[in-house]
Write a structure and sequence with these properties.
Elements lengths: L7 H40 L5 H17 L14 H31 L1 H7 L6 H27 L11 H26 L3 H15 L12 H9 L3 H8 L9 H31 L1
Length: 283
């Protein structure tokens, strides 16, 4: 006597409180887990530098080789800069940032094949951290690559035409491409779970980037390449990366399309990665 069974309303309130608390705990654990995965990825740069160095050396080689080989491109009437390195340096940055992103996919494939990823999936952390952690690592890698390529390019004669403000679109394009590459790389890694995905990552990235104004301005292109580049949404990202190195001033009219492309494709690719992770968990 004197004891009372909990009413249905009380039980509902307790269940709601428990669910809310669980969600709160999960959300607070997502960020620390993501940071931990980011740190692991960055530490792997020193442990396995061969997996990271190409994303630094390749854009430097491209910028120097292309600007030297095609130095006369600046003589074309209407060309937006008088320095060939100004035209090719942003392309090198975008390529390096993209490989910093899809390089995360390579690392994920190695973890999947070695069985380490199964251990990650068994940890009591939110599944979303398995996407956001690699994303943070890719952004950090892309920022490092962009800084190194910018310094080397400056030593070889590249000059910002609008002062330090020109670095903003350069870094925005680089980080955006890194985020897109991360989502694409993770999604393919979760689907194929072996090195077949690596070939697709690289091939699609090269196609998307080089079918733009990567090497020559749109107004001197001809034939099918002009039509493809004109409608390729990533052409606006290439243009965004070059805003600080060419003559047209930086304005909202010159930046909004590139930023919109980055936002839309980042969302789509991260959703693609999240869906791939869900399918992987169901296997």
């Amino acid at each position: 006597m004197g004891t009372h069974e909990p009413t249905r309303g009380t039980m509902t309130a307790l269940n709601d409180t428990t669910t809310s608390t669980a969600r709160s705990v999960a959300s607070t654990r997502t960020f620390p887990a993501s940071v931990g995965l980011m740190r692991r990825s960055l530490v792997n740069i020193t442990r396995l530098p061969s997996a990271f160095l190409p994303s630094v050396l390749m854009p430097i080689f491209q910028a120097i080789a292309f600007s030297g080989t095609f130095f006369a491109i600046t003589q074309i009437p209407g060309f937006p800069t008088d320095r060939s390195i100004n035209w090719f340096l942003p392309l090198g940055v975008v390529m390096g940032a993209g490989f910093a992103g899809i390089g995360i996919g390579f690392s994920t494939i190695r973890d999947l094949e070695g069985g380490f990823y199964d251990r990650l999936r068994l940890t009591p952390t939110p599944r979303m951290s398995l996407v956001t952690g690699p994303l943070l690592a890719a952004l950090a890698r892309a920022a490092l690559v962009t800084t190194i390529v910018f310094i080397v390019g400056t030593l070889f004669g590249a000059r910002l035409t609008h002062g330090p403000l020109g670095l903003i679109p350069l870094y925005a394009a680089a980080l955006g491409i890194a985020a897109i590459g991360t989502g694409w790389g993770l999604g393919l890694a979760f689907i194929f779970r072996d090195m077949r995905a690596a070939a697709i990552m690289q091939l699609t990235f090269f196609l998307v980037i080089f079918l733009t104004e990567a090497q020559t301005p749109l107004f001197i292109m001809q034939g099918w390449l002009e039509n493809v580049a004109r409608f390729n949404p990533f052409n606006s990202v290439i243009r965004l990366s070059r805003l600080g190195y060419v003559d047209p001033p930086i304005s909202w009219d010159n930046t909004w399309s590139g930023l919109l492309t980055i936002a839309v494709f980042t969302l789509l690719m991260l959703l693609f990665a999240r869906r791939g992770l869900t399918r992987l968990s169901d296997v």
